[in-house]
Amino acid sequence: MVENSFSRHTQLLFGLAIFVICLLLRAVTFGIPHIDVPMYRVISDQMLQGHDLYAYSWDNKPPGIYVVFALFNWLFGPGPLAPYILSVLGHTLCAIGCAFAVCRFRKGTTLFSTAPIFAALAWLIMSLDSGHASNQVNNELFMNLCRIWAFGLILRPFANESARGRVLRFAYAGSLFVIATFFKQVVILSAIFLALAHLATCSEEDEASVKQRLIDFAIIGIVGALGWALLLGYFALTNRGAIAWQTIVTFGLWFSKSYKAGLTGKLLLLLSWPKLRAIQGTFIFVLVAFIGFMLTSRKALRQWILWLVFFLTAFLETALPGTAAGGHFQLTIPPIVLGPSFLLAILQISSKKRASLLAFTLIIAAILSVAYSNYDQEGDSQFYRQMVARRHRFGKLARKLLQPNESVYNWGWDTDIYPAAQRKAASGVLFSQHTLYGPLAEMMENRLLGHLTKNEPPIIIVNRHLELSGNIANWFNDNYSPMAAAHHDNVFVVLARKNMRRRFDVANIHLEELSLPTLVSDKLAFTYENKGKFVHSLWINFNVAEPEGLPEPMQISISCDKDLNFNQTVGLRPNRPYCFWVAQKVDKIKIKASSLGEVRNIKCHLRLLRED
Questions:
Q1: What does the angle CA 584 – CA 586 – CA 588 come to, to the nearest 5 degrees?
Q2: pLDDT, tens digit, 9 for 90 and up, residues 410-459
Q3: 132-154 burial string, b = 16+ CB within 10 Å, else e?
């Protein structure tokens, strides 16, 4: 694995030691909930049951994460063991990759010296942070794994490298980059900019001509193009070419523009977001690395330039995915870990004592940055645990109410309801926002309605704090009615099919419709005295022009007595009913709405369905 280091057996011993440390450190992450991981599990289970990705099961990400989860679910079952093993293996390989990259930084750096060990341990420590979700199994884990190893291959040639060996080295690097793009397309930036930096630089160890470096550049490009041609060709041969293109390219381009603040906003978020205090704390790594770059660049100028490109490209890749999420910032961890590690690799050659002291200081800084972060990771984990406990409670309710061959559907993004219910999802469209926003919203809305009409799930569990509008809201209202209030809480409401009211404890479906006053304003406040009657649902229609781009946002707050409150930001679209399931007796309803965009003089029509 590493030249001029130790025997193969010693390298295997190093890898085994990192694996054991990672296994122990990540034991605290076993079963920790996350929004995306249950969705990966559900979609991969649907794939194993014979449903086609994108044609039936749909999410906006490339196929890499679902293929990996399908493999590990097949090997270890659909429980929490598969994600845990996947997490341990992934982070072990990332840590070893960091050590490999440090050994590749400069000739003479051995695997068991200070710098590689520091790099591996720093990775294992930083990857436990919940603020940037690196304690979870997500796309960024596999993207980082490929980026780190590809970066290590590009740094410099191997000892006594032949022409064939050079071609293979860049073919391997290109393959790693293209695999990374199968998880998220943004890694193409790392491939492009690192290949350009390689083309523009040379060193005493690598005196390849410009022509040879152009060939290296071409190899990475050809491997990347071939990889994507094979992937899209596979989907085309399986009659999924159009939907794969729309998902990966069309939706990806739209999503990348959905966060208006862009790169500047992401950078400011990185510096100020409390969830990212662990990364902010390790900016001392970056400072040390830049000092090292200024003081020691002559000894390894090409490698430092490649590191600088790697560091800056990570921020571009963080900014591109669109809406800000803590997990996106994991892409900054590899250069943050490798920068000071490269400095250690230089210092340990000239002074072992100084290197050891600096290594000790940096390791302590890494531990403190995570352990004493201002961000309350314990509180974050507790929040997710409470949220998942609620989902599991409603999943178990579905298991109790349904026969084994019946399906259930959740309107929202609470996909861990399905494993808890031990029932199939009635549709492959699992996230509600995919039917509401984006270039494929109408297609996903029609697909969802088609799946629900065909499968007829006896119950639907609605997250009533998420937007429910349009044709789906009308279809729910036509076919379902809320169960008795005992089956709901302040987040979820359980709807049962109207034609199964004898089987389920369904609320009275004989309703009266009240047309409340039409209001015209960019801000409105309205109070309705309901006098304790059971409210089925509240409907709001906004009369606005068809938006040219993204719908203007409207903040809606609804308070039903003291124990039920809705706070939603919805996109204003014409002739689209917005539904709020109340499903309980209410004395007073207070409604407030205000435009967050430039739209003014909005006409708003309120409609109330309640027991007669």
A1: 155
A2: 998 888 899 889 999 999 999 998 998 889 999 999 999 999 999 999 99
A3: bbbbbbbbbbbbbbbbbbbbbbb
Joined together, the tokens standing for residue 97 give: 């990759």
CB 70 within 8 A of CB 79: no
**Cα–Cα distance between 557 and 58 in angstroms, integer?**
31
Sign of CA dihedral 456, 458, 463, 468: positive
Angle (nearest 5°) at CA 373 between 325 and 336: 65
**CA-based angle 587:592:593, to the nearest 5?**
150
Secondary structure of residue 604 in the 3-state scheme: strand
With vertex at residue 290, the alpha carbon angle to CA 187 and CA 282, rounded to the nearest 5 degrees, is 70
Closest CA to 364 of 292, 285, 311, 273: 285
H, E, C per residue of 388-452: HHHHHHHHHHHHHHCCCCCCEEEECCCCCHHHHHCCCECCCECCHHHHCCCCCHHHHHHHHHHHH
d(CA 313, CA 316): 5
Write the DSSP string, 495-520: EEEGGGTTTTTBPP--EEEEEPPPEE
3-state SS track over 329-386 = HHHHHHHHHHHHHHHHHHHHHHCHHHHHHHHHHHHHHHHHHHHCCCCCHHHHHHHHHH
Q: Coil, strand, or helix at residue 568?
A: strand
Please, are residues 460 and 480 in contact by the beta-carbon 8 Å criterion? Answer: yes
pLDDT-above-70 percentage for the chain: 75
| Residues 438 and 251: beta-carbon distance below 8 Å | yes
Chain Cα centroid distance, residue 300:
36
C-alpha count within 13 angstroms, C-beta hemisphere, residue 20? 6
Q: Quick one: 548 exposed, middle or buried, by C-beta within 10 A (0-12, 13-18, 19+)? A: exposed
Structure-token match 């119950």, residue found: 459
- Residue at token pair 């390894």: 300
- Pull the structure tokens for residue 24: 């122990």
pLDDT tens digit sequence for 227-283: 999 999 999 999 999 999 999 999 888 877 665 555 566 566 656 555 555 555 556
Q: Do residues 477 and 497 lie in contact, with contact meaning Cβ atoms separated by under 8 Å?
A: no
State whether residue 161 is helix, strand or coil.
coil
Q: pTM for the complete prediction?
A: 0.85
DSSP 102-123: HHHHSTT--TTSHHHHHHHHHH
Question: What CA–CA distance (Å, rounded) separates 280 from 293?
Answer: 20
**CB-count exposure of residue 24 (10 Å: 0-12, 13-18, 19+):** exposed
The number of residues in the chain equals: 612
Specify the DSSP class assigned to residue 544. Answer: -
Q: Would you say 568 and 467 are in contact if contact means Cβ atoms under 8 Å apart?
A: yes
